[in-house]
Amino acid sequence: MGTPEFAVPSLEILLKNHYNVVAVVTAEDKPAGRGQKLQISEVKACALRHNLPILQPTKLKAPEFVETLRSYQADLQVVVAFRMLPEVVWAMPPLGTFNLHASLLPKYRGAAPINWAIINGETETGVTTFFIQHEIDTGNIIFQEKEPIFPQDNAGTLHERLKIKGAELVLKTVQAIESHAVQAIPQAQLAQPSYAPKIFRETCQINFNQTAQQIHNFVRGLAPYPAAWTILKGKTCKIYQTEVWQELPPNFATTDWQIGQPISDNKHWLCFKTAEYYISIKELQLESKKRMSIEEFLRGNKL
Length: 303
What we know:
The chain is an alpha+beta fold. The chain is built from nine helices and 14 strands.
């Protein structure tokens, strides 16, 4: 059970290792783009390539879906980046249902663990498999694998590593369940929980009253999607890459700049004053324009 690209390597690694995937459950096709053409999920595309049965329920409690799912007589259900399941679904297989989560649970329970780990300045995260129970992301832990967060990482680069590491952990978990070698651990024995709530566009606006380092982590944690943003030249401007500057070039250092004020030589750099230091913009995208480097932007946009 899964929908986005993050779930595809987990499906593929099970097939590669000759597990009998009797069906794939994924999101319904949705209209997208200017033409609003129906788009299929990345997991559905993978299932089609492998000629697997595909279920796309509107409601997971619908009797017809539950009966169809039961007809496959699965021993085990594997969930990667899917919806919250009702008990009638997760309690169905005799060996249970487990989930892959992109954090070291109980840290960063919720919809956006990769983003929030970077936003909060963490230097380490990982992947966890756990048995699903009633409350979301609270089930007993089967396995965990750690992964460093490097200073140059953003949400996109970390996502790419964790989807591969996660797939390997899914395979390890299935093999352990198959051989009855699992001793799941309650999350309460590990740490206090923290949370990674869903990210919305309005919560992606940059707050220049934070420090430059906090803003830098915020940009990293939201790049490349959905992207942090601010208002520049009266338009929404997405920010993809930044640097922390402790001071400005000498010609600009004498002015008492206001927090949130853009400062630029109109050739090579653009900074904003923050609560501590300056945040230098390296890559951006002004509303209705293409994504570009700061030098490209300043050639056509003087401040």
